[in-house]
Amino acid sequence: MVVHSYYPVGETRVQRQAAALVAAGIGVDVICLKGAGEPQVEVVDGVAVRRMPVSRHRGSGMLVQLLEYMVFLVLASLVLGWRQLRKRYDTVQVHTLPDALVFSAIIPKLVGTPILLDVHDLLPEFFQARTGLRESHPLVRLARWEERISVRFADHVITVTEGWRRTVMERCATPDVSVVMNLADPIIFKPRAGHVRAEGFSIVYHGTLTERYGVMLLVEAVAELARSTDGVHLHLLGDGDARPALEGLIADLGMGAFVTMSDGMVSTGEVVAAIESASVGVVPNLSNVFTDGLLPTKLLEYVAVGIPIVAARTPMVAEYFGDDQIAYFEPGDVAGLVAVLEKLAANPDEGIELSAAAARFNDFHNWHAESARYVDLVSGLGTDRRR
Predict the structure, then answer these.
(1) How many helices, marked H, and strands, marked E, lie in the chain?
(2) What three-state secondary structure class fits 215?
(3) Can you tell me the distance from the alpha carbon of 385 to that of 108, in angstroms, rounded to the nearest whole number?
(4) pLDDT tens digits for 18-30?
(5) What is the spatial distance between Cα 201 and Cα 204, in angstroms, rounded to a whole number?
(6) Following DSSP, what letter does each residue of 1-51 receive, concatenated?
(7) Are 331 and 314 spatial neighbours (Cβ–Cβ below 8 Å)?
(8) DSSP state of 191
(9) Which of 348, 341, 297, 292 is nearest to 319 (CA)?
(10) Which domains does the chain have, with CATH numbers?
(11) Which residues is 202 bridged to in the sheet?
């Protein structure tokens, strides 16, 4: 696997898939970024991790990030190519973003190894949301061209929702696209025993701290909520380019006593503990061309643990969950979010009903079945290579 992220703290999708492969007896090497203090080579839960001397430069501008992508792509290409010639990998899986990272597998491709491209996010929509450019802008068209040639370079493509599968197939004119959803691992995210009726009202948000995911709006809502509701506390776990702005907003609103923010990305165990002790989990995404197509991983992890969920009514979330399963508010509406949170704080039994109804999702979509399909797909590609 090649991923422009950290491992194991980084993309939970990568960690979850690697664990599924190891459990099935498949050897896994991961080529990834190197965080401060991390060893260059390490074995983590049976996964051999090789870290490139590259780290993230969040909030440093697009040119710096582009350079970061290019350096990682070159280093990953060299390491993967050398190891391919020595180990003869049966399959190489490349995780986006960026889509062009798939070309790090050029040497494996040339010697006949199947390449699996895992599209975590749709690059053109992601780029539009970050820049505010129109669909017709030359840079957006360039992003679509990159997506198309990257998808066609791969032997098979997987993505996270049926909606994105249709988009990739139509835009790139390829039938070789499957869905592997970002479902919570039930071994890690277990249903908690009963509803937490702890003193106070604890709100949790975990994942990327960026404006498009509505974290600024969430802090504003909690500041308003604290004026009318006792015992309110917000737990923010994660990291991202909005961290400096968040810290400034918390200080400006005098919310230091009401908000706890982690120093950076945290372990899965810390995330689970925070979710299990929360009164409610919030998914406050803003609405744009990118976020409208997301089915957030954090939401599915809240469902797995069984806590009530408050979420912005974006199209993809509403496609999977009804009003009886999630307490919705309109994207970007601070007052609407405050009203929903006030209602759940005053009526905890309503939260119990919501979480019980949301649990029906697990009857149709669960990691046990999804991981088996994923392992079969990877095994099948490896068998084709050996033939």
Answers:
(1) 15, 14
(2) helix
(3) 11
(4) 999 999 999 999 9
(5) 10
(6) -EESS-TTTT-HHHHHHHHHHHHTT---EEEE---TT--SEEEETTEEEEE
(7) yes
(8) P
(9) 292
(10) 2-183+366-386 (3.40.50.2000), 201-364 (3.40.50.2000)
(11) 233
pLDDT tens across 172-228, in order? 988 889 999 999 988 889 888 765 555 689 999 998 899 999 999 999 999 999 988
Quickly count: other Cβ atoms within 10 Å of residue 250's Cβ. 20
Under 8 Å between Cβ of 386 and 353:
no
Specify the pTM: 0.85
Handedness of CA 369, 373, 375, 379 (dihedral sign): positive
Going by C-alpha positions, the residue among 1, 6, 3 that lies closest to residue 264 is 6
At 218, which helix (H) or strand (E)? helix 215-225
CB 205 within 8 A of CB 298: yes
Distances (CA, A) of 162 to 10, 48, 129, 253: 24, 31, 21, 41
- C-alpha gyration radius of the chain: 21
Angle 162-172/138-153 helices, nearest 10 degrees?
100
Rounded to the nearest angstrom, the gap between the alpha carbon of residue 58 and the centroid of all alpha carbons in its chain is: 16
Please report the DSSP string for 96-151 in residue order.
Answer: PSSGGGGGGGHHHHHTT--EEEEESS-HHHHHHHHH---TTSHHHHHHHHHHHHHH
The torsion angle over the Cα atoms of residues 6, 9, 11 and 17, rounded to 10 degrees, is: 110
Which DSSP category does 57 fall into? -
Distance CA 195, CA 202 (A): 13
Hey, what are 346's tokens? Answer: 């005053």
Query: Across the beta sheet with 309-312, what order do the strands follow?
Result: 259-261, 232-239, 201-208, 280-283, 309-312, 327-329
Reference 15, options 59, 40, 49, 52; nearest CA is 49
Nearest to 144 by CA among 319, 5, 289, 292: 289
Amino acid at 238: G
Q: 42 has which bridge partners? A: 49
CB burial readout 83-109, b (16+ within 10 A) else e: bbeeeebbbbbbbbbbbbbbbbbebbb
**Residue 299 CB partners (closer than 8 Å, separation 6+):** 281, 283, 309, 311, 317
Q: What mean pLDDT is predicted for residues 286-296?
A: 92
